[in-house]
């Protein structure tokens, strides 16, 4: 990856409260992942510590940690061991995000992790693989060498559409309608100022479904 692209991925552009809302994890949980404690080191190394801020890659790491945390209520020591295993198998500063694309072996990456996560039955291991794949599919390399991140809007489900996107090179990494630079926050603010979905769709040359999804996403952030 080119140096300037790598630097863009590592810029500290997200506050902790903002990032927690984007990836759907509790704020205090995210702070613990980033800060650790007196006896425990951080799981994620934040792009900046004073004030605490996340890079785009940190955001993607948080997204993947949220997947692990949600699978059978995995305890953090097991998750931490899984990450250390990933670092050993696929040397990288951000193994949960980068290694599956560097090796082009997503199945191999996932198959190596369940034994470190928890000693489950064969069926349980399949469930882990399925859940991790679902989260990995929300992260796609783009032609420039960066990543597109498609957050879950309504629920963590394979059927969730990818109509909302984040990319550090688009709108400073803030949420936009996929394939555009149209800010979801701007769309929602205009809707709440009593502009209709139909009028907004016509003005932005987008479908009404996309406009509705942008409003739904921003409403979710406000409720978080």
Short summary of the structure?
The chain is mainly α.
Describe the secondary structure blueprint for this structure.
Layout: H1 3-10, E1 14-15, H2 16-23, H3 27-35, E2 48-49, E3 52-54, H4 56-70, H5 76-89, H6 95-103, H7 106-112, H8 114-117, H9 122-136, E4 139-141, E5 147-149, E6 164-165, E7 176-177, H10 184-192, H11 197-204, H12 208-223
Antiparallel strand pairs: 1-3, 2-3, 4-5, 6-7
Helix pairs in contact: 2-4, 4-9, 10-12, 11-12
Describe the protein in words.
This protein has helices spanning 3-10, 16-23, 27-35, 56-70, 76-89, 95-103, 106-112, 114-117, 122-136, 184-192, 197-204, 208-223, and strands at 14-15, 48-49, 52-54, 139-141, 147-149, 164-165, 176-177. It is mainly α and 224 residues long. Helix 10 packs across helix 12. 35% of the residues are buried.
Keywords for this structure?
224 residues; mainly alpha; Arc Repressor Mutant, subunit A; 2 domains; 3-stranded antiparallel β-sheet; two-stranded antiparallel sheet; 7 strands; 54% helix; 8% strand; globular
Question: Strand-residue fraction?
Answer: 5-15%
Overall strand count: 7
Mean pLDDT: 82
The tally of helices reads 12
Name the overall outline: globular
Q: Point out poorly predicted stretches.
A: 101-109, 114-126
The order of strands across the largest sheet is: 1-3-2
Q: Count the domains.
A: 2
Distance between the termini: 35 Å
Classify the helix fraction into a percent range: 40-55%
Describe the oligomeric state of these chains in a short phrase: single chain
Q: Topology as H/E string?
A: HEHHEEHHHHHHEEEEHHH
């Amino acid at each position: 990856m080119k140096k300037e692209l790598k630097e863009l991925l590592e810029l500290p552009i997200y506050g902790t409260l903002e990032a927690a809302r984007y990836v759907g994890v509790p704020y205090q949980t995210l702070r613990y992942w980033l800060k650790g404690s007196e006896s425990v080191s951080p799981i994620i190394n934040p792009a900046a510590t004073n004030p605490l801020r996340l890079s785009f890659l940190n955001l993607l790491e948080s997204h993947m940690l949220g997947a692990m945390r949600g699978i059978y209520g995995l305890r953090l020591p097991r998750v931490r061991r899984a990450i250390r295993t990933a670092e050993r198998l696929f040397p990288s500063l951000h193994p949960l995000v980068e290694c599956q694309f560097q090796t082009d072996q997503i199945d191999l990456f996932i198959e190596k992790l369940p034994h470190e996560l928890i000693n489950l039955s064969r069926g349980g291991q399949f469930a882990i693989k399925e859940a991790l794949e679902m989260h990995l599919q929300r992260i796609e390399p783009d032609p420039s060498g960066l990543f597109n991140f498609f957050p879950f809007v309504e629920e963590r489900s394979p059927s969730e559409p990818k109509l909302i996107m984040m990319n550090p090179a688009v709108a400073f990494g803030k949420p936009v309608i996929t394939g555009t630079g149209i800010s979801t926050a701007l769309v929602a603010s205009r809707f709440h100022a009593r502009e209709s979905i139909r009028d907004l769709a016509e003005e932005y040359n987008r479908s009404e479904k996309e406009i509705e999804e942008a409003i739904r996403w921003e409403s979710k952030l406000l409720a978080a």
